[in-house]
Write a structure and sequence with these properties.
Elements: E1 6-9, H1 15-24, E2 26-28, H2 38-44, E3 50-52, H3 61-66, E4 73-75, H4 86-91, E5 95-97, H5 104-119, H6 122-131, E6 151-155, H7 159-169, E7 174-178, H8 185-188, E8 192-194, H9 197-203, E9 206-209, H10 223-228, E10 233-237, H11 246-255, E11 258-263, H12 274-277, E12 282-284, H13 293-311
Helix pairs in contact: 1-13, 5-7
The chain binds 2-keto-D-gluconic acid.
């Protein structure tokens, strides 16, 4: 390893991860955890060998073109790489890595939380308890939908999708999935494969989005596709907001075509969509799918393993460009 490669660490990382970074690298840290503008990012990257960013840093073609020649690798602290223009990185021969596997359990936990929360109206109930508006009880009060025994359709049966399926089986759910390719029966664990998204949408009570966003999947849940969903279906999204046509989705939530939704991700982040926040049939979280201490540490170590491999002259395990 060359003496102390220089690493720009764009956000505050867990203490143990920063300590490990400090041992082996000469780091520019961000102790105030301030979101850098693109200009600042390019400025701070001057003279650095590597960048360790989060999905909050938009590494567009324009930003990539302005990075100094000293940058050899971008080791993301995220599994999703939709914030990175991978073609632009490849053109400049800058290696890009991500952090798969380590956040699958955490993200699946949040998917199940959202599914239960949306089906059982947890958002409305919680708001009522906090604003003091719980005044009555009757058999008709806050009646939701059962999850147990229902059919769950998973779009994207990768690492996260497979854990969501496993957890959903704990609720006796009948798991169906759409994926670019059919999984082996060992990985399917009895889940039913659909080679067509429309057929999955038409047959499921719950739909969970678990695929990455890329030019092929952007807007995957279009107005036309929403119209194929079962009436009164419930939608869960822990992947990326850009998978959904939010305008069409809001119309469907208003009409009851989609009975409820549990969302952790939005087209605009941070902030989300104020119109969605107004809808009582949504259960909403602020992109915390992987936000637990164990997972944050593991993501940091995974990013560091990629950096270490690169600077030792080996191929990083999680290279995506
Ligand atoms: C992370 C995520 O917290 O890893 C991802 O792709 O969406 C999140 O769960 C975030 O991206 C960290 O940069």
């Amino acid at each position: 390893m060359p003496a102390n490669p220089k690493v720009l660490v764009t956000r505050k990382l867990p203490k143990a991860v920063e300590e490990r970074l400090n041992n082996d690298y000469d780091c520019h840290f961000n102790p105030d955890d301030r979101l850098y503008s693109s200009d600042e990012l390019v400025d701070f990257a001057q003279g650095m060998d590597a960048i360790l960013p989060c999905h909050t840093e938009k590494l567009t073609a324009d930003v990539v073109a302005r990075l100094p020649d000293t940058i050899k690798i971008v080791a993301n602290f995220s599994v999703g790489v939709d914030h990175c223009d991978l073609a632009a990185f490849s053109e400049r021969s800058i290696v890009v890595t991500n952090t798969p596997d380590v956040l699958s359990d955490a993200t699946a936990e949040i998917a199940i939380l959202l599914m239960l929360g949306a089906a059982r109206r947890a958002g409305e109930g919680e708001a009522m308890m906090r604003n003091g508006s719980w005044k009555d009880w009757s058999p008709a009060f806050m009646v939701g939908t059962s999850v147990t025994g229902k059919r769950l359709g998973i779009i994207g049966m990768g690492r996260v999708g497979q854990v969501v399926a496993k957890r959903a089986r704990g609720f006796d759910m009948d798991v169906h999935y759409y994926n670019r390719s059919k999984l082996s029966s060992e990985l399917e664990q009895g889940a039913m494969y659909h080679d067509d998204i429309d057929s999955l949408l038409a047959s499921c009570d719950f739909i969970s989005l678990n695929c990455p966003v890329n030019p092929d999947t952007k807007g995957l849940l279009s107005r036309k596709r929403i119209s194929k969903m079962r009436d009164g279906a419930i939608l869960i999204n822990t992947a990326r907001g850009a998978l959904i046509d939010e305008e069409a989705f809001i119309d469907a939530l208003k009409s009851g075509k989609i009975a409820a939704a549990g969302l952790d991700v939005y087209c605009v982040e941070p902030g989300g969509n104020p119109e969605i926040s107004q809808l009582p049939n949504t259960f909403l979280l602020p992109h915390i799918g992987s936000a637990n201490q164990e997972t944050r540490d593991a993501m940091g170590y995974r990013a560091l393993d990629n950096l270490d491999a690169f600077f030792k002259g080996s191929e990083p395990n999680d290279r995506v460009a």
